[in-house]
Design brief:
The complex is a heterodimer of chains A (287) and B (93). Chain A has 287 residues and is mostly helical. Chain A has a single domain, classed as MetI-like (MetI-like fold, Orthogonal Bundle), CATH 1.10.3720.10. Chain A is built from 13 helices and two strands; from the N terminus they run αββαααααααααααα. In chain A, strands 1-2 form a two-stranded antiparallel ribbon. In chain A, strand 1 and strand 2 form a beta hairpin. The longest helix of chain A has 31 residues. The radius of gyration of chain A is 23 Å and the shape is globular. With 93 residues, chain B is mainly alpha-helical. Chain B has a domain of 46 residues. Helix content of chain B is 67%, strand content 4%. The longest helix of chain B has 23 residues. The radius of gyration of chain B is 16 Å and the shape is flat. The N and C termini of chain B lie far apart (45 Å). Classes of the chains: A mainly alpha (287), B mainly alpha (93). Chains A and B meet through helix 1, helix 2 and helix 13 of A and helix 1 and helix 2 of B.
Chain lengths: 287, 93
């Protein structure tokens, strides 16, 4: 075994390192620095120690936004992942309809976040929006600008409309990679549809589902634009998720120190949950 | 362009230097004991030395936050807990 040992290829990752340094490491370092200081602008900073962390960790406002965020993300994953799998299973495997379905599925993903928010805002308005007007005409009291429950339902449905396609496309890719031989073997054994799903399709989709859950978790946990455009965080604070609260604190109030501390707590929570998901979902593969 | 906008302070710089040193130390460790020392620890997780470093740093972050949330500053208690946690992770996880 004469293996050539040449480490020069490491230089090829230099551009990526520079890019990541400028869009991740340096901003993150700055946020860490801000989180221990107070500033009134003009690049003047005053050391505050751990005050902001203590303040954020003990603030009811942060606890409430955090709980809302967790609830929203849990609802999103619980709805979008099974729905995405179900839609992917019903999509055609061969023929001209494949392209039609794929394009239709990809459409919501191509629409920018703020446009989705604006579309749903107009669509759901109780007096002129198609959805809002129809629901009210049917006798259902619906007004997302005034009722917290309506606002929550609209936000969740909007996210499901926008992002379920991503889960569908990932699952479809996973399903397409299963060789026909598996299905033939299953039909010879007389396996039921459920057995085929449980023992062939689901295990084969494991990897793409890991990616789908992680992506949906991260995106929904950091969601900002869509609910901001749709509800503006209201009515009251009922749809003020973590990132909306963070922006209010950082830009609205110019409290850079507490906002930096909150971002770091937010970052650590995202990191912990992603790591936990990843560890649990890749465990079986390792075994 | 100066770096004043980054608002560097000695304590935060020391923190980042410690992070970089810990990663460098892992590199040196790997150089002398290659392979990453993979094992299945008491939590049933398959980890290498790099994973254990990540778990230790992440845990340290939460120990610090937990301490600040429940007891406030100073963080000496959190530091002692974090050292015990690092020892636990590198020995058994």
């Amino acid at each position: 075994m004469n293996k050539t040992i040449n480490q020069k290829a490491w230089w090829l990752i230099l551009p990526v390192l520079v890019l990541v340094a400028f869009n991740a490491f340096i901003p993150l370092m700055t946020v860490v620095n801000y989180s221990f200081q107070e500033t009134f602008g003009n690049n003047q900073f005053f050391w505050e120690g751990t005050t902001w962390f203590e303040q954020v960790l003990n603030s009811d406002r942060f606890h409430a936004a955090f709980l809302r965020q967790m609830l929203f993300t849990a609802m999103i994953i619980v709805i979008e992942v099974p729905l995405g799998i179900a839609v992917a299973l019903t999509m055609p495997k061969k023929g001209p309809w494949v392209s039609v379905c794929l394009v239709l599925m990809a459409l919501p993903l191509l629409i920018p976040w703020n446009v989705v928010g604006a579309m749903w805002n107009i669509f759901a308005l109780p007096d002129i929006g198609l959805l809002g007007y129809t629901l009210n005409s049917m006798g259902i009291d619906y007004n997302f600008t005034q009722q917290p429950v309506s606002a929550w339902i609209t936000t969740v449905v909007m996210d499901v409309w926008h992002w379920t396609s991503l889960v569908v496309l990932l699952c479809y890719a996973g399903l397409s990679s299963i060789p026909d031989a598996y299905y033939q073997a299953a039909s010879i054994d007389g396996a039921s549809k459920w057995a085929v799903f449980r023992y062939i399709q689901l295990p084969k989709m494991n990897r793409v589902l890991t990616i789908a859950v992680l992506l949906r978790f991260m995106d929904s946990f950091m969601i900002y634009t869509e609910p901001f455009v749709l509800t503006g965080g209201g009515p009251g604070n009922t749809t003020t998720f973590l990132s909306i609260d963070l922006v209010k604190m950082a830009l609205g109030q110019f409290d850079l120190g507490p906002a930096a501390a909150m971002s770091l707590i937010y970052f650590l929570v995202v990191l912990l949950i992603c790591w936990t998901f990843y560890t649990i979902m890749t465990r079986d593969e390792v075994n | 362009m100066g770096l004043s906008w980054m608002a560097w302070t000695w304590p935060t710089a020391a923190f980042f230097i410690t992070v970089v040193l810990s990663i460098t130390a892992m590199g040196i460790w790997e150089k002398y004991r290659p392979g990453g020392d993979p094992r299945r620890g008491i939590l049933g997780l398959d980890t290498t030395r790099g994973d254990r470093l990540f778990i230790s740093w992440l845990g340290t972050g939460f120990i610090g936050l937990g301490w600040l949330g429940f007891f406030g500053s100073p963080l000496w208690g959190a530091l002692i807990l974090a050292i015990i946690f690092w020892f636990f992770v590198f020995k058994w996880v």
